[in-house]
Write a structure and sequence with these properties.
two-stranded antiparallel sheet; single chain; about 150 residues; alpha/beta; 5 helices; 5-stranded parallel sheet
């Protein structure tokens, strides 16, 4: 798949419908950071969010326990979402493969052909340079309006 082109709507919608547990690498405890807002919205939409940040390990972000690395997660992870520089993405792709994730999703501005090739070769679906929070509210997706606030 060419990750520089638009993704088919069905591809993104299927991923967002199928995943349940998302590990967010680079999650921030700072409410002014974009990753905090994305974590909040995805959690409110019913996803089981696991914040990953070595500087915040053992603390909580929005009531969710932060782990220091993907390897520390003790439950199955469907998707690894990445809020880190593009240079870090190949290593994170290897870690996502090691924990048996099904999807590698990198945030807007985060892109690596090497990471995409590694992940796809291991059978993961890959999305680069996109935001799941934005994709959730595109016309093909209906938000879960029955969630408590």
């Amino acid at each position: 798949m060419n990750h520089n082109e638009e993704y088919p709507e069905e591809y993104l919608a299927d991923i967002l419908k199928e995943v349940k547990t998302i590990a967010m690498v680079g999650a921030s405890a700072d409410p002014t950071k974009f990753s905090y807002g994305v974590l909040r919205v995805l959690s409110e939409q019913g996803y089981n969010m696991i914040p990953v940040n070595p500087r915040e390990a053992g603390n909580e972000i929005r009531g969710l326990r932060v782990v220091g690395s993907l390897a520390e997660i003790t439950e199955p992870v469907d998707m690894v979402e990445v809020f880190r520089p593009s240079e870090a993405l190949p290593g994170i792709a290897r870690e996502a493969i090691d924990i048996g994730a099904k999807v590698l999703w990198s945030q807007i501005g985060v892109y690596s052909d090497e990471a995409a090739k590694l992940a796809e070769a291991a059978g993961l679906r890959v999305v680069m340079n996109r935001c799941p929070k934005i994709e959730l509210f595109r016309p093909f997706w209906k938000p879960k309006l029955n969630q408590e606030i």
